[in-house]
Amino acid sequence: MSAASRTSPPPVNSRPAGARPGRIAAFLGLFLLGALTGAAGALVQAAWFPGGLLLSLAASAGLFWTGTALTGSRAGVGSSAAGWLVAVLFLTATRPEGDFVFGAGLGSYVFLLGGMLAAVICATVGNLVRPPGVSARTGE
Questions:
Q1: 42 CB-side CA count, 13 A
Q2: Which of 14, 24, 27, 113 shows its CA 20 to 30 Å from the CA of 38?
Q3: pTM score, two decimals?
Q4: Alpha-carbon span 87 to 54, nearest angstrom
């Protein structure tokens, strides 16, 4: 027998590591949680100013950080921040009747910019924690 006949071919249904159904479900769940957090934060930040603003920003930052920790990648922040952004942008649009959720106050702008800033910070700092036992130095 030759060496080529001893090796087995790769499985036909092999998927890339990132396309597992559980991982896709986690990203979809984070997207939905982001949308829910954005919608709830839009309502709470105006209702209980300034405490509601701090609560909604803390909830958003907590969700973004949890997305990073849960998935172990920056895509966790991306999926939850995308859901948050879709909900917030949907609520900033005015309707034909003239109704809207966000007013033109300081709290609304702080919520919008603060939520985006929290997402960027969590995406930037989220993967800086090194796994135990891995050293950057070659001699260790």
A1: 21
A2: 24
A3: 0.73
A4: 19
Amino acid at 138: T
Residue pLDDT, tens place only, 33-80: 999 999 999 888 888 888 889 999 999 999 999 888 888 888 889 999
Cα distances from 76 to residues 33, 55, 72, 80, in angstroms, run: 11, 21, 7, 6
- DSSP H or E segment with residue 122: helix 106-125
- pLDDT digit string (tens) for 79-119? 999 999 999 988 888 777 766 777 777 888 898 999 999 99
Q: Would you state the structure tokens that stand for residue 80, as one six-digit string?
A: 């939850």
CB 67 within 8 A of CB 76: yes
